Amino acid sequence: MSTIDDALVWLNDPYNWTGPGGVLELGAEHLRMTAAAVGIAAVLALPLGVWLGHTGRGAGVTILVANSTRAVPTFGIILILATTGLFGNGAAIIAAAVFAFPVILANTFTGVHGVDRDVRDAARGMGMSGLRIVGLVELPLAVPLIAAGLRTTIVQVVATIPLAAVAGGGGLGQIINFGIGNQRYGQVLAGGLIIAALALVIDLLLGLVQRAVTPSYLDAPRGGRRRRRTPQPGPARPVPAGEPGRP
Questions:
Q1: N or C: lower Cβ tally within 10 Å for the chain?
Q2: pTM
Q3: How many C-beta neighbours within 10 Å does residue 185 have?
Q4: What is the tens place of the pLDDT at every residue in 16-49?
């Protein structure tokens, strides 16, 4: 049989889904690892991004340093951690958190910093403190970009966490790792399809959440401002004889 046929056979075996170490068990572990990595990155990046966006202090240097972490492959970070004795899920979570940090930081900074200065000035003119301006003005206006950053980050981490299996960790990467080790390439393909499908489903769900948390007055699905609908003139009404304008 071909690799595709082997993958279909593997996917249609119920034991591979519900048995010990099956897709459901490994998938749950995969999602827990993703949540841990994104949670660590968000706890660090969100407050820093809000502060930098609000004050503008040292923003360029911080964003540059954060983006420089993208030049280091996630697998390389896992290997570096392995040299310190950290293996398995812990190494993968830390590596994925390092990978996720700059995306969340950049989007948060851009969203808060991009708030119209006139809006800030108006809030100060109303007597708002800096903290209230952040909470009541800047953050609500920055929600679309922050949500987009989190959505992108989560999907990328879902696709990156399978590297944990290389360092002795769990998650859906074990399916691929086991298939490679035993030359079962149909299983390798099946594992890749499952991870891709999981990433697509999560992206779809997060898209719905992003749309729900975005205020309606900021919702511009085509990337521009909402265009006001201009009333169109209706058909001309016949003017009876004898009225002005009637010959």
A1: C
A2: 0.78
A3: 15
A4: 999 888 899 999 999 999 999 999 999 999 999 8
Q: Tell me the three state secondary structure of residue 225.
A: coil
Token digits of residue 51: 């502060």
Residues in the chain: 247
Tens digits of per-residue pLDDT, 204-225? 999 998 888 776 655 544 444 4
Paired tokens of 128: 């708002």
Going by CATH, does the domain composed of 3-218 fall within 2.60.40.10?
no
Kindly report each contact of residues 51-57 with a partner whose C-beta sits within 8 Å and lies 24 or more positions away, as own/partner.
Answer: 52/109, 52/112, 52/113, 53/108, 53/109, 53/110, 53/111, 53/112, 53/113, 53/114, 53/115, 53/138, 53/142, 54/112, 54/113, 54/130, 54/133, 54/134, 54/138, 56/113
**Domain residue spans of the chain:** 3-218
